[in-house]
Amino acid sequence: MRGGKRGQHKGRERVLAENEDDIIARNMMEREEKKKRRDSDEEDSEESESSSEANESESEPDREEIMRNMPVEEKPRKPRRAVVDEEIHNLNRAPKKNNPQGERLEVQLSGRQKRELEEQKAKEAYFQKTLEGKTPEAKATLERLARIRAQREEAARRRKEQEEARAAMENRIKEQARLKNEGKK
């Protein structure tokens, strides 16, 4: 929902720099503004500190000296552990059992996994039977291929016979033409 009477100004035109010089000038102006703000903030904080120090120094002049002369007791810092040396014991995690490498663990499969394995094995067995030609589809395919092979052989035999018949006919025609030419001479 839009806030207020006039709404938000999300669709306003963006002001984009046209060249590299504009970008550099804009960045320089932003840096100068940040420096001015920091300087003014530091001056304000220095003034407030100096005024508070003046008030404190008037009331307790020896306090600073006492603090300086006191031996500083540093708390021993705990080293940060980048690497965990000890394993964190998780109570919810079952401990590992030491099994010799020779023993095989039986994996418990879910019902879905068992069905998928059975389906995969069945497909592989069916594919193997298909390759051997023992399935109905394979038998039908082999019969169809045998029929096609027989048809092609028959067609090749017919073409060969027709070519032989044409060649014989051409030889007869040539022979008759030669005999006519010899008879006229």
UniProtKB/TrEMBL annotation:
Pfam families: PP28. Residues 1-121, 152-185 are annotated as: Disordered. Residues 102-164 form the Casein kinase substrate phosphoprotein PP28 domain. Transmembrane segments: none annotated. Residues 64-90 have a biased composition (Basic and acidic residues). Residues 1-12 have a biased composition (Basic residues). Residues 41-63 have a biased composition (Acidic residues). This is Casein kinase substrate phosphoprotein PP28 domain-containing protein. It comes from Blastocystis sp. subtype 1 (strain ATCC 50177 / NandII).
